[in-house]
Design a protein that fits this description.
Structural class: alpha/beta
Largest sheet: 7 strands, mixed
Bound molecules: S-adenosylmethionine
CATH class: Alpha Beta
Strand order of the largest sheet: 3-2-1-4-5-7-6
CATH topology: Rossmann fold
CATH architecture: 3-Layer(aba) Sandwich
Strand content: 15-25%
CATH superfamily: Vaccinia Virus protein VP39
Length: about 280
């Protein structure tokens, strides 16, 4: 009975991200995470919220630069992994905590100079609430920076990976808003517009994020998604039931191989994303 009740109450957004172990994917993202942080040109003192922070791909480099950083993520396993990293690095200016980007309970208005969300808040289910919350917790004069994958862009690796994965998965429940809608200019203007931000204060540019590993091949890279990345794990489970698991695997491997630029045996996949900057 207790188990049944727990299942009913489980937030599917949380369950999806706690299902696997995103730290295994984040291992391919460390260098570009640092590059994104460097490109922000931050000067301290600075209070930063990293929203949908995972285990700290951007939160750790921010803290290493001296910012006071709070990482908020819906997945408890990633919050725990982030706090372990912070502790191991002796970073007392970095704390990870559980929270939902749609409703940042306990986070005061105008708390941060910078709210950063790199491929994080885009995965929360209520985009208008997310935009409102990011604006609410950011100080006037501060900024919000988002990194979002772009739908239907063949060079936006994760959007292509998710497109393939979802073609093997049952359709989402009615009312589901695709995370990829955060990669469309008009949606960003509308969402931040409803949060009170005029479009003149929003800039959107295409940028490139690299998935890198010197020693893991594109096939091993895809195997990490199949084993550890919730949305792809769901696709694998569905494909196992429909007898299409080999087809799914070969489509994903083909995607990674076709985008791999590494001359050696490793992986170097450039992935286009939309970089959104909102100045408040
Ligand atoms: C693709 S991962 C990116 C993680 C991290 N930003 C990085 O670059 O390594 C997406 C992250 O968003 C988190 N997430 C998804 N929905 C969320 C929500 N509603 N509120 C907060 N975090 C969320 C997931 O748990 C996951 O850590």
């Amino acid at each position: 009975m207790a188990l049944k009740l727990k299942r009913i109450n489980m937030n599917p957004n949380k369950a999806l991200w706690e299902k696997g172990d995103f730290t295994e994917i984040a291992a391919f993202m460390r260098q570009s995470g640092e590059a994104v942080v460097k490109s922000l040109g931050i000067t301290t003192p600075l209070r930063v919220l990293d929203l949908g922070c995972g285990d700290g791909t951007t939160a750790v480099p921010l803290a290493l630069l001296g910012a006071e950083v709070v990482g908020i993520d819906i997945a408890k396993n990633l919050v725990d992994a982030g706090n372990k990293r912070a502790q191991e690095l002796g970073l007392t200016n970095l704390k990870f905590q559980e929270g939902d980007a749609c409703d940042l309970q306990g986070v005061g208005d105008h708390s941060f100079n910078l709210t950063l969300s790199v491929f994080g808040a885009m995965f929360a289910p209520k985009p208008f609430d997310v935009a409102k919350e990011m604006v609410r917790v950011t100080k006037p004069g501060g900024r919000i920076v988002m990194g979002n994958w772009i739908p239907n862009d063949p060079t936006s690796f994760v959007s292509q990976l998710l497109k393939i994965s979802s073609s093997f998965t049952p359709p989402p429940p009615e009312g589901f808003v695709s995370p990829m809608t955060w990669g469309v200019d008009a949606n960003i203007i509308e969402r931040f517009g409803q949060a009170g931000v005029p479009k003149e204060k929003i800039s959107m540019v295409k940028d490139t994020f690299y998935f890198l590993s010197p020693d893991k091949s594109p096939t091993q890279f895809i195997e990490s998604f199949e084993r550890f990345y919730g949305p792809t794990m769901n696709a694998v489970e569905a494909a196992q039931k429909s007898g299409k698991v080999d087809e799914l695997h070969s489509q994903l491997v083909e995607l990674a191989k076709s985008q791999n630029k590494s001359a050696g045996g490793g992986t170097s996949i450039p992935a286009t994303f939309l970089r959104v900057t909102v100045t408040l």
